[in-house]
Specification:
Length: 142
């Protein structure tokens, strides 16, 4: 079973982040620039929250706030649920499905080592299944 560690090995350990005092506009600029759907909110090197496109839609646009006048701290989700590198992609998919979100920071010994999205997890799952199908086809035809 593929682990979160294996995903990070392929995609890298970079995590794009903002501070809680950043404006929502600055966070959106980072999302657009890096072509990602969520940024981690970090204070004193500790993850304190997560801000995603959905927070903008639900807590800024629908609540008639403005991106330039709202801070990330006002609309982020505090204390994000995290995953460990040795956990499997099936565990990540189960967590994301049960909690209805698409991003998981990866924590090892209290240290942030990466972030995986639903896209990363689905890609890894497809590779895993493609490999299994190839093995079965080889077995059948040999
Ligand atoms: P997403 O589906 O990841 O765009 O996020 C949907 C909602 O869940 C937003 O309010 C996010 O702030 C929140 N969220 C995303 N990832 C996490 C996480 N790992 N832990 C807690 N909340 C999260």
């Amino acid at each position: 079973m593929t682990t979160i560690q294996e995903i990070l090995h392929t995609k890298g350990h970079e995590v794009w982040s903002v501070t809680p005092t950043a404006t929502v506009f600055q966070a959106l600029e980072l999302l657009a620039d890096k072509r990602i759907g969520a940024v981690l909110v970090v204070e004193s090197e500790r993850p304190v929250g997560i801000f995603s496109e959905r927070d903008y839609a639900r807590k800024v646009v629908l609540e008639d706030r403005t991106a330039r006048e709202t801070t990330v701290a006002d609309v982020m989700t505090s204390n994000p649920v995290c995953i460990r590198p040795e956990q499997t992609i099936d565990e990540a998919m189960a967590l994301m499905t049960a909690k209805r979100f698409r991003h998981l920071p990866v924590i090892q010994s209290d240290r942030l080592v990466g972030l995986v999205s639903i896209g990363d997890v689905v890609k890894a799952k497809i590779s895993e299944q493609t490999f299994a199908i190839q093995q079965l086809e080889n077995y059948i035809t040999s």
